[in-house]
Known about the structure:
Blueprint: H1 10-23, E1 41-42, H2 51-58, E2 66-69, H3 70-75, E3 79-80, E4 87-97, E5 109-121, E6 125-126, H4 141-153, E7 160-163, E8 170-172, E9 177-180, H5 189-203, H6 213-216, H7 224-244, H8 255-265, H9 273-278
Parallel strand pairs: 1-2, 7-9
Antiparallel strand pairs: 2-5, 3-6, 4-5, 8-9
Helix pairs in contact: 1-8, 4-5, 4-7, 5-7
Amino acid sequence: MSHQPARTDPYQLVTETILAHLERGVIPWRCPRKRTVGHPRNFRSGHEYQGVNALLLGLMHFPSPWWMTFRQVNECEGLVRKGEHGTPVMKWGRYKRKPTNGDSTEEKKTTFYLRTYRVFNAVQIEGIEFPPVESGPELDSSQRIARAEQIVGEMPQPPKIKEGRTTQASYRPRTDTVQIPAFKRFDTPEDFHLTLFHEMIHSTGHELRLARKGVMETDVFGSKTYSQEELVAEMGAAFLGMEAGIVRDEHEQSAAYLKGWLDVLREQDHRRWIVHAAN
C-alpha cells in the first residue's frame, strides 16, 4: 500500500516560520526596509506580493525584488541554480463547486481555497536577465516624517485625531476618535508617528470602514479578540512605518514583548492569526 505525503497546512507553515524568527529575537513584521530592495514582485507578471506573502519574502533578505515560480523559470528558458530552495507563498482562490446530488438545476456553490507554492529569487536563477536593482536614497529624519504625515493626511474618511488631551494613546470606536499624547512627550518624531499609525490601524476596524470584530465588539484586555486586534495594529503600523522609512530599533524588541507574542501564537487555535492579521 502506498502512502501519500501529509498535506502541508499553509497556516501552520507560516506560523512556524514566524515563531522561528521570534525565538531568535527577531520581530518579523518590523524587518527594516533597508534590508530589502524594493517591494517583492513576480518578474513574469509584475504582480506585487501583498499581505503575508510580502512579509514572508521580505524575511529572506535577498538583494533583488524579483521572484518567479519554478514553472515560470522553465517557461523563460532559465534554470534554478543547483541546491537552491524556494520560499513558500500563499494563494487564495475560489471556484464554483458542482452540485453533489447530480441535479443540474441546483445552484453551484462558491468554494474558497488556500494553498502554498514556492518561488525563487532572481539570485537563485540563472539564464534570465533581470533588471538592475536600483536602491533609492536613504531618507533623512525630516523626509521620513514628511512621508508619515502624508500617509496620515491621505487616509480616506479618517477618524478624528485629538493630540495632547491624554497621556495614553488609544482609539475610541464610539466617537471614532484617535487620542494621542502631545508630540513633545515622545522621545523621537518617529516614535510619535509609529504610535499614531498603530491607533489609526485600529480605526480601520470601525463599522463605517472594515467593521472588524476586534474593534466592533468591546472586549477585555488579554482576551482572544483583544489579542487578535492588537496583532493587526502591530503589523499594520509596522507596514506603514516601512512605507515611511521608519523602523523601530533592535533594542526596542524587549524580551517581554517577544515572549508575549510567542505565548499567544504557540496556542493551537491561534495558528491562523498571522495570516489573517497580515492580510
